[in-house]
């Protein structure tokens, strides 16, 4: 750790990359330990595209893989994105060269974490990814470093700012999903292809990474149960609120016996719960440890400033010379996550039906539930306002997912039902 | 970092020390990087006192300083407490021996942080103190490591669980300060001498440490402005609630121009603010960075489990081999904190008066404020219920502390006043 200076190569010069170039050029001595940092190489798809930071004097590489392998830099920062392709090839090249890698790429770590950890540890190269989860809010550092003296039971929170923004906006503006999404795209809050965000994939990548750190296993994105917010209707947001809940896209990883449940799904959270009160593009996370109890963190989950600061914090960590396994154990001994059979998951649920306005419907619905073994906690029938369509909403007591799904199938067959029943979990918090 | 095992000496075997002995004996391989940890020496005031952990087989030292200097251990854990005396002597001896020191001692770090940092860095010895602030909630790690890429503007929060518990209990039970404190002592929630907690000294130690990490200066406990909760009356808790606020003991460190305001004081927080919603013995902290924005963390601030886990996390950090300055800069270049002149502090305030029930009093009060240049935001007169004593409560717009204090002095001289005016700040959040 006695170098003259640390030479950083940055691949990918979008808003985060440009923010990092700007941060380091303004404060090259930001890392408390060690010598100054300098950006000594950059690579992106287009050299001439206008950017908020001046890159004209920085050495340029057309090929990020060549830059990653070059002996003229010490730390490789990957901000290209994507689980495969040039991002993966460049990270592998840098690790093979024994170079520290800092990345904001959640898809890459969630889908190839184990093989990259093996490569990093075989080459004595740190592989850090604070910016991959919750932007500037240090969820990765907390799980990787602050919880090591404890046994983590669960992590659960709001990890996708775009979905959270859309749900908040639907509630406050009274507009439907499609309309709010279209506006979010126009404003730049949502990508042109928003399916990663609203489909829950982005949150699933992030919770897979947190689960690996929490439970000392390899990231297991492939086994995550994923449901997005595309089917959340304004009606459900309003009915949930009548019952004292707000619908959030919840990402969670929970130890259950020998297995782990890793999932992303819309969930009802009580209105006065900190997660229900996490609005707009904020992210928030509960970490529960056996000895420590519950820790809550909340902060900006994206954006150039926060994400660039998280990358800079990782660079500072590299400079301290700290050597840690990439996940909580040496890569060779990482456990394989045993997914909980989702059919055996238990919990409470919200069920919304649209029924024909005629006598005997409530009796039919409650009989069907009783026969299926589902116990009702609360029941609310709204006025159909002369449309002939009556919304019925109910919450259940704790029930196994398979029992509930069977009840919903039976319910769907009732002649009075005008739409498929809508089932949303109630957050177990 | 290729040792056979890490040998840890623990001085102080209260609940935290016993918790640590228990944690390490159950999970000697808790540190993800490196070899197992073993407790190889212990010291406390009494060897025979009953403890939740078995120490009978552990090598015993009567003198913690001799244990700290002994070559038979690598990491010295100081859990004795107190800013001076054996705790300081033992930490100094360990650092002089080039040994890593982990401590939960906020008084020691807040009052002697600079000289200990100089000693640590001169001997190449890490000095870590995560457990000194917010117990198991990693406030120190966040400021020391996660914020290095950003410029911290302020840190503010609830850092003393005992005071927070007493304020919460006064509100929910409708009992006065003295009664709730007496009960808290009986239940073991407050020390026999509670003045460190309810007098704001403990919170001031903690915010001094966080200020040093946030602003790259030496801890400056001596310049902190401190006001405790001893004079908070149930009446004020109730009147504040009528106005939409909850009274909390707020610890804050804020950059203002070239100076820093470091203070602990009771403050009104809006009822729906996360700090107002931090009840019981919880701790909570806002960290605001220029690039990152605001991060909020909340969790248990004390207790054997959380605090022992924080000590264990520091031990794991030592094992990674990370070398960082003790505060954000090398000890020799730590800035001296320039305190803001409290007379120039500006903010909003709550003012409560008890006046004689007679005509013209409100006019006299509002004239006095107007003449002093204090602008009123809201005004509430409660019924005197035939006691002849009428509470008047008002909130001000932003005003300089010296202007407000002058107004209060003039007000105190009004013939209709039956008690000294009660002034409480409104949190600038």
Question: How is this fold's topology laid out?
Answer:
Two copies of one chain form a homodimer.
Chain A: E1 6-11, H1 15-26, E2 37-43, E3 60-61, H2 64-69, E4 75-78, H3 85-96, E5 100-103, H4 106-122, E6 127-128, H5 139-146, E7 152-158, H6 161-173, H7 177-187, H8 195-198, H9 201-215, E8 225-226, H10 234-242, E9 245-256, E10 259-270, E11 282-289, E12 293-300, H11 304-320, E13 346-356, H12 361-372, E14 376-381, E15 389-396, E16 399-400, H13 401-412, E17 422-426
Parallel strand pairs in A: 1-2, 1-4, 2-3, 4-5, 5-6, 8-10, 10-17
Antiparallel strand pairs in A: 7-9, 7-11, 9-10, 11-12, 13-15, 13-16, 13-17, 14-15
Structure description:
Two copies of one chain form a homodimer. Chain A has 429 residues and is of the alpha/beta class. Chain A contains 13 helices and 17 strands. In chain A, α1 packs across α11 (304-320) and α5 (139-146) packs parallel to α9. The radius of gyration of chain A is 24 Å and the shape is elongated. The two termini of chain A are 45 Å apart. The mean pLDDT of chain A is 94. At the A-B interface, α5, β12 and α11 of A face α5, β12 and α11 of B. β12 of chain A pairs antiparallel with β12 of chain B, so a sheet runs across the interface.
């Amino acid at each position: 750790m006695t170098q003259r200076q640390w030479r950083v190569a940055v691949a990918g010069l979008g808003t985060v990359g440009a923010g990092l170039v700007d941060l380091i050029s303004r404060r090259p001595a930001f890392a408390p330990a060690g010598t100054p940092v300098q950006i000594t190489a950059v690579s992106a798809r287009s050299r001439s595209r206008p950017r908020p930071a001046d890159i004209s004097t920085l050495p340029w590489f057309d090929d990020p893989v060549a830059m990653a392998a070059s002996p003229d830099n010490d730390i490789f920062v990957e901000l290209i994105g994507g689980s495969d392709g040039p991002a993966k090839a460049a990270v592998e090249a840098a690790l093979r060269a024994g170079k520290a890698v800092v990345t904001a790429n959640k898809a890459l770590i969630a889908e190839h974490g184990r093989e990259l950890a093996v490569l990093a540890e075989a080459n004595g190269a740190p592989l850090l990814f604070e910016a991959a989860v919750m932007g500037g809010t240090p969820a990765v550092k907390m799980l990787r470093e602050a919880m090591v003296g404890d046994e983590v039971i669960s992590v659960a929170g709001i990890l996708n700012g775009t979905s959270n923004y859309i749900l908040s906006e639907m509630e406050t503006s009274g507009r439907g999903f499609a309309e709010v999404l279209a506006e979010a795209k126009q404003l730049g809050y949502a990508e042109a292809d928003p399916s990663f965000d609203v489909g829950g994939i982005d949150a699933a990548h992030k919770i897979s990474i947190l689960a690996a750190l929490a439970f000392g296993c390899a990231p297991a994105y492939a086994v995550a149960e994923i449901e997005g917010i595309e089917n959340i209707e304004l009606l459900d947001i309003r009915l949930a609120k009548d019952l004292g809940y707000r619908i959030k896209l919840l990402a969670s990883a929970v130890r259950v016996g020998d297995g782990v449940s890793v999932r992303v799904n819309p969930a009802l959270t009580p209105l006065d719960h900190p997660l229900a009160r996490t609005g707009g593009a904020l992210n928030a996370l509960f970490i529960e440890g056996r000895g420590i109890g519950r820790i809550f963190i909340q902060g900006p989950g994206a954006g150039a400033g926060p994400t660039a600061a998280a990358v800079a914090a990782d660079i500072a960590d590299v400079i301290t010379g700290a050597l840690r396994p990439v996940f909580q154990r040496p890569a060779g001994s990482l456990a394989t996550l045993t997914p909980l059979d989702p059919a055996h998951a238990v919990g409470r649920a919200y069920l919304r039906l649209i029924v024909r306005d005629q006598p005997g419907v409530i009796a039919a619905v409650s009989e069907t539930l009783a026969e299926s073994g589902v116990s009702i906690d609360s029941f609310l029938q709204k006025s159909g306002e002369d449309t002939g369509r009556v919304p019925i909403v109910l919450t259940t007591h704790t029930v196994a997912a398979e029992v509930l799904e069977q009840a919903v199938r039976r319910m769907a067959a009732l002649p009075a039902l005008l739409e498929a029943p809508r089932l949303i979990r109630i957050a177990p918090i």
